[in-house]
Amino acid sequence: MSIPKEPRQLMINLMYLVLTALLALNVSAEVMNAFFSLDKGIQESGKIVDVSNSRVLDAIEDQAEAYPDKKEFAEKAKQAQAITSEFVDYVQNLRDELFEAAGGPHPDHPEWPKRKKDKDVTTRLLVLGDPNTPEDDGKGFELEAKIKETRQKLIDLVDKDPEVIKSISLDVEDWKALSHDKKSSWADFKFRQMPVAAVFPMFSKIQSDAKTSAAAVLNYLFKKAKGEDIVFDVFQPVLAAKKSYVIRGEKFEADVFLGAYSSQSSENTKVYVNGNLIPMEEGTAHYTTKATGLGTKKLNVKIVVTNPLTKEEKEYEKVFEYEVGERSVAVSADKMNVFYIGVENPVSISAAGIPTSELRVSISGGGGKIKKVSGSQYVVTVSKPGGQEPNCFVKVSGGGMNAKKGFRVKRIPDPIARLGNKSDGTLPAGTFKAQKGLIAWLDNFDFDAKCQIQGFRLVRVPKRQDAVEALNSGGSYKSQAQRLINQAKPGDTFYFMDVKARCPGDSSGRKINSLVFNIK
């Protein structure tokens, strides 16, 4: 097993070694609980790695989409994710099998197995195998083979690069060198007479090693897709105006800069606007002039770049235009700067210098419709959500002027399911029974919109008894669910799961939060 470079992974490994060493001592309940805490910590760390790996994979795919010759790296990245996911799922299935073999969920701690201290069950499942089939070894041998196979597949994706291989932590330990009591195999060394509670963090660590190994592979492929060195050999003058349309008497302001700017180019770059040299600061030349007269104005921009090595000068010229006028239009959403599906979105539109009779207002994109209410007040309805960029535009024209403003279209935010005014916690039995069902709440939403609960799955877990569940349609309790509610007693736990709600504008229900209540 290679030594991880990341501090988080190194800390997990050290905690794992310390708790494993405690097995040589008297194993107390506190130590057993510590194994479950370690297991949870490793799993949470794995989730962070999952998010990071997903983002790197997206970046590789974006690079491949922009540069078709990089597609091979995107394909390898997808293979790395698939290989890792398959292995993680395999270990998870093995973990679930051990959980069931150890008696299933504990009544007081469903996330723990009943026989968490049992050492025989781990030995039978992972080392000895089925006693009725002598040739059938324990599943620890298959796990060992899977680790080796997965490691080799990941190494093959990085062309066996020695630096990346050092970062692939998924491996089988040299158990012969580590074993001091003549163990016969890695499975024997790893799992024989290990309490169930100790094996769970072992499985989680193996899964974590697989994910961090995938991260090393993805980072290597991202560097390949991105390229080691970027050479800027095309320069394009750019003018970013604060306003492209200004009122007479105002100042026109614009930033003029060189596209593909290098940090080494400041001393070797000169910017001229209409023949006047404009000082540069941190790659940007700030140009200011007073707008006089009406109509279209032109700016002749020339940028002179001196090669710091050859001292050769190259000139780049471009003409920019801006318009000076006296009319302006303002389009503003009265409540939020987005349009929500399923509700009426009020909009205010004002146009200075344009008669109302000449003003024309329309909308495009997002399945939008707009109607006038009175004066400058309009109402917009939309039906098609978009991404981060505006996908719906309000257009205003008339009096020789055309303008538009973009808005994003979004679904109404997910509501919060509550029982009474609580989404979880502890309730007296009487208070719990008095509730009529779940209600969907839209917190901090400025529009008058109501979401409806479509249904949920109610699970009652009586103390030291088997769970009982009922499916319920709608938010109010139906007969089967009401019977479970009426049976509530102190010590019971009730789970409201698979809760679905439908908000205005939704074509189908959406899954929202689950609720858990302990009855006192």
Q: In words, what does this structure look like?
A:
With 520 residues, the protein is of the alpha+beta class. The chain folds into four domains: 220 residues, no CATH class; 89 residues, Immunoglobulin-like; 83 residues, Immunoglobulins (Immunoglobulin-like), CATH 2.60.40.10; 104 residues, no CATH class. The protein is 33% helix and 29% strand. It has eleven helices and 25 strands. The strands form six sheets. Strands 19, 21, 22, 23, 24 and 25 form a six-stranded mixed beta sheet that branches. α1 runs antiparallel to α2. The chain starts with 6 loop residues before the first helix and ends with a strand. 27% of the residues are buried.
Mean pLDDT: 82
Determine Rg (CA atoms, Å): 33 Å
Assembly level: single chain
Number of helices: 11
The largest sheet, given as strand count, sense and whether it forms a barrel, is: 6 strands, mixed
